[in-house]
Amino acid sequence: MRRLLMMVMIVLSFTLTGCSGQKSTVLPDSYALGYFNSIEYLYNSNPSFPGTNEYLAFDFSNLEFDDLEQLITLVQDFCKEKGYTYLEGTIDELVQWGYIEVYVFESGSTFPNGFPDGVLFQFSPVSIEEDTLVTQISMWKGSLSSWGSIYTATYNEGVWSVRADGIIMS
Asked: Against a cut of 0.85, is the pTM above it?
């Protein structure tokens, strides 16, 4: 009898707790998936891939969020799956490492001119809300070859969906 009474109390306790009237909000597990799906959207929207690119480089210097390491892991796996070598760095760093060619002016100053064997993904965050992430992502191939968009990734029922809000080309 004690056991039965105890079971009834436990069930009643869970039932009453669950009926408190508070709305449960499910937050996305990780904004990394929203960013990653936006990268894939941009990658898949460009007809020149795979082309002759050997490298996919990523400049994460403007991104600050808790799951950045998870995004890096997702991108590294993506590069491996697609047959690219993963690089991480800014344009200046990629120039220093010899991946990006520079144009040298008569004055001796330089200008990043092109990434002959790769593409650089650059990020400019716009906003992050509970279930929506807005960011500008561009793919830079050279001084006259860059394209991208502002991407809105929305988390709903366990899935990130992405839409592009216009095209940015230079």
From this structure: no
